[in-house]
Write a structure and sequence with these properties.
The protein has 126 residues and is an alpha/beta fold. The protein has one domain: Methylglyoxal synthase-like domain (Rossmann fold, 3-Layer(aba) Sandwich), CATH 3.40.50.1380. α1 crosses α3 and α4 runs parallel beside α5. The mean pLDDT is 96. It binds 1,3-dihydroxyacetonephosphate. The site of 1,3-dihydroxyacetonephosphate has 13 residues, from α3 and α4. Belongs to the methylglyoxal synthase family.
Length: 126
């Protein structure tokens, strides 16, 4: 990956409409970032924002959260926007927690809901 600042976009299933709407509303700002996403989220955001160039990892339950966690450890992801669903049990809950843990360990800005994401994306200009 290049030295361009990179944001990771992830949303759980109940939040995918929200992240697509968030991306659409912030398409011009997101265009300045390199964007990585988990598989299904990336597909939804790409559909909503054809102008963006999104690098899609595996789907979350198949290891996508872990791939993005690894990119945080190597300094290749600089901000995490993760619309989580706190009302649904998930088979890969440990991966979700591990990703949040690495974002905390490496002290990168992390938004877990839309209200915070709107503020982060305004505040952190690459
Ligand atoms: O499950 C996810 C994050 O934990 C998201 O993965 P998808 O974007 O592939 O649905």
């Amino acid at each position: 990956m290049t030295s361009q600042k990179c944001v990771a976009l992830i949303a759980h299933d109940q939040k995918k409409d929200d992240i697509a709407a968030f991306a659409k509303a912030n398409e011009a700002v997101l265009a300045r970032w390199k964007i990585v996403a988990t598989g299904t989220t990336g597909g939804r955001v790409q559909e909503a924002c054809p102008s963006l160039d999104i690098i899609r990892m595996k789907s979350g339950p198949l290891g996508g959260d872990q791939q993005i966690g690894a990119l945080i450890t190597t300094g290749e992801v600089h901000m995490l926007i993760f619309f989580t669903d706190p009302l649904t049990a998930m088979p890969h809950d440990v991966d979700v927690k591990a990703l949040m843990r690495l974002a905390t360990v490496y002290d990168i800005p992390m938004a877990l809901n839309r209200a915070t994401a709107e503020q982060l994306i305004d505040f952190h200009h690459p």
